[in-house]
Write a structure and sequence with these properties.
Elements: H1 5-9, E1 16-20, H2 25-36, E2 40-45, H3 49-60, E3 65-69, H4 75-89, E4 94-97, H5 112-140, E5 144-149, H6 162-182, E6 187-194, E7 197-198, H7 203-206, H8 209-215, E8 224-225, H9 230-237, E9 248-251
Helix pairs in contact: 2-9, 4-5, 5-6
The structure holds nicotinamide-adenine-dinucleotide.
């Protein structure tokens, strides 16, 4: 008998998801989308004040949500947050490694602190968050799914973003390496590589004059909206992607196909 795709493949009822960097932008959207699909969510970011408001908002819509403090550049903070989330929710099925930062400087101006800031957050932080969750998932043998938020700059490059592009390229390779090692535990590891997605912090720039010029470089002639990532996220989070691991879903209106 054919399964009903609307209920079984994309429903996250009974699952728990932890989203890093959930206090703003895409992370906030990912957490809301997962909650709307039925998942219990653990909202993680350095400061919990904004997270508390989002958790309250999700609970008012009938969801289950808690906020935990997590600085992904601090391993003990990652361990504490994952333990708290796991203990309070019973387990963690889905991890969305979303926390990310960028330093916009020429390569010659990049200092060690800039390089470390971006690498420690975008690559090392994602690895240790994945390891903390996967350790528990491997132990309880219930499997899991990890979704790393990469970027098209993990494949193509732009000037003044050397550390960001290198970290995202590393995140793509890390996705594949972890998928290979953790398949035996039924832990799937995939990535989403967004192009330019309009969020609160870049809206003025992307929808202004400079944005217009950049938009013409996108084959579909448009930037993404946060909601454009809902489908890929739900696919990778749920049963619909049960045979997918080590993949990178590019969501960019064809941007990566065009010559920079
Ligand atoms: P954003 O700045 O709004 O969100 C980043 C989040 O990460 C924030 O909530 C921030 O508090 C959190 N964060 C930063 N450092 C952290 C740390 N040490 N510990 C815990 N949390 C930390 O940016 P965004 O546009 O929403 O980006 C989210 C992710 O999507 C990033 O990984 C980014 O690289 C990626 N991305 C964004 C776009 C885009 O166009 N918006 C495109 C491609 C990839």
């Amino acid at each position: 008998m054919m399964a009903d795709p609307s209920t079984s493949l994309f429903s996250l009822e009974g699952k728990t998801a932890l989203v890093t960097g959930a206090s703003s932008g895409l992370g906030r959207r990912f957490a809301t989308c997962l909650s709307d699909a039925g998942a219990n969510v653990i909202l993680a970011a350095r400061r919990t004040d904004k997270l508390d408001a989002l958790a309250e908002d999700l609970r008012s819509k009938g969801g289950t949500a808690i906020a935990v403090a997590m600085d992904v550049t601090d391993q003990s903070s990652i361990e504490t947050a994952v333990k708290t989330g796991w203990d309070e929710m019973g387990r963690i099925d889905i991890l969305v490694n979303n926390a990310g930062v960028a330093v916009t400087k020429t390569a010659l101006d990049h200092e060690e602190k800039d390089w470390d800031f971006v690498m420690d957050t975008n690559l090392k932080g994602a690895f240790f968050a994945a390891r903390a969750v996967a350790n528990r998932q491997a132990t309880d043998q219930q499997g899991g799914t990890i979704i790393n938020i990469a970027s098209i700059l993990g494949e193509r490059v732009l000037k003044q973003l050397v550390s960001y592009a290198a970290a995202k390229a590393g995140l793509v390779q890390m996705t594949k390496a972890l998928a290979l090692e953790w398949a035996r535990y039924d832990i799937r590891v995939n990535a989403i590589a967004p192009g330019y997605i309009i969020t609160e912090i870049n809206r003025d720039f992307l929808t202004g004059h400079s944005g217009d010029k950049m938009r013409m470089g996108v084959p579909m002639r448009k930037f993404g909206e946060e909601s454009d990532l809902d489908g890929p996220l739900l696919l990778l989070a749920g049963e619909g992607s049960r045979l997918m691991t080590g993949t990178v879903l590019t969501v960019d209106g064809g941007h990566v196909l065009s010559i920079p």
